[in-house]
Amino acid sequence: MALVDVGRLGRAHGLAGEISLDRVSLSAEELLAISEFAVRLPEGKARALRLVSARPGGGRLLVRFDGIEDREHASALTGAALMADESRLPDAGPGMAYTFQLVGLSVVDTSGRHLGRIDEVLQTGAHPVYVVRGDRELLIPAVESVVRHIDWEQRIVSVDLPPGLEDL
Asked: Domain 99-167, what architecture?
């Protein structure tokens, strides 16, 4: 069983054990279909949890786990990585990828110049943005006109940077 990071637990929400879920590329329905998760707390401890509810709320997802019945227990999960068995994830779809699949890939421009590695994928209203860290940090829009090719075997993303992007 290969566990992959599917999101980061944020702050407790309300009094009944709900907690926000950030950096997730799965829908509430997909999370509920997976149902069984592991959480890895910032101090390194891990535990298994069963998801009992997931819903949109305030631009993010709000989730609740079996046995987490109040704000205090939910707060204890703040900052934890939510992990799932990779084999239980739904297919991301043609031309799509999960965040965990992109993080760590090398990024090169169309001339072959190494720009850095994808460190994070920001979800914006319009499209995802790759946070690429190398000699400097670049925010690269994940759109078809910029991201030209992903070589999964070589773990390389080829991009055609818009004029001026490196000057920001």
From this structure: Roll (2.30)
